[in-house]
Amino acid sequence: MKLLLIEDDFEIAITLKEELEKNYIVKISATGEDGEYQAEINDYDLILLDLGLPDKDGLEVCRNIRKSGVRAPILVLTGQADLKMKVSLLDAGADDYLTKPFKLEELMARVRALLRRPKETLLSNTLSTSDLTLDLDKKTAKRETQLIALRKKEFYLLEYLVRNAGNVVSRGMILDNVWDNDCDSLTNIVDVHINYLRDRIDKPYDKKLIKTVHGLGYKIEA
Ligand code: CA
Fold it and tell me: Rounded to a whole number, what is the largest CA-CA distance in the chain?
């Protein structure tokens, strides 16, 4: 199993790494910026996150890691843990925390407990707006409880609209983000796919989700 340790204090980082490496592969990150990057590009089983980082607030790092879709459990190492802090930590997407100073045995026990948790109980990999929910793993959509199968391109297009819910996205933005490149002359493929998508997710329902914003593009209400 691979762990990411985001900790700027060199001595603490080395001590923890030595202990954790008896059982796991451990990568150290010394800044929030690098930690977010490492968490996003690698597939870790657990992330240990120090809240007091030199470049960024640890809570913000936690939030950004979750925003990038990372589902690995996050164990926060913090100097303070009053009620307000605990609530903020959970809201930011952390799974557990340890107050410094802590005993290595306790840290190891928390790590084992988090790694034992079945993945489904952790943050689910879905996006939603209104009565629409997207399952990012299965690439399916639901309106309320009704499952809607989508072609891959339709799914990515819908995912892009939902990630930008409340904002207008232009045809150009859609092309850049949903199609690979070089489709400038083909902006009507966006319209064509929006129509496919409407047939599946809007036509059978009273409430229409995809709005055309004249002259600008499309939007899904937040
Ligand atoms: Ca620190």
Answer: 62
Q: Which are the contacts of 92, defined by CB distance < 8 A and separation ≥ 6?
A: 59, 60, 62, 63, 66
Ion ligand 1: residue ranges with CB closer than 5 A: 8-9, 50, 52
Distance 10 CA to ligand 1 centre (A): 9
Q: How far away, in angstroms, is 54 Cα from ligand 1 center?
A: 7
Which residue type, as a one-letter code, is found at position 218?
A: Y
pLDDT tens string 145-179: 899 989 888 998 999 899 888 999 998 888 877 87
For residue 162, what are the contacts with CB-CB under 8 A and spacing of at least 6?
A: 127, 128, 129, 132, 134, 220
pTM for the full predicted model = 0.56
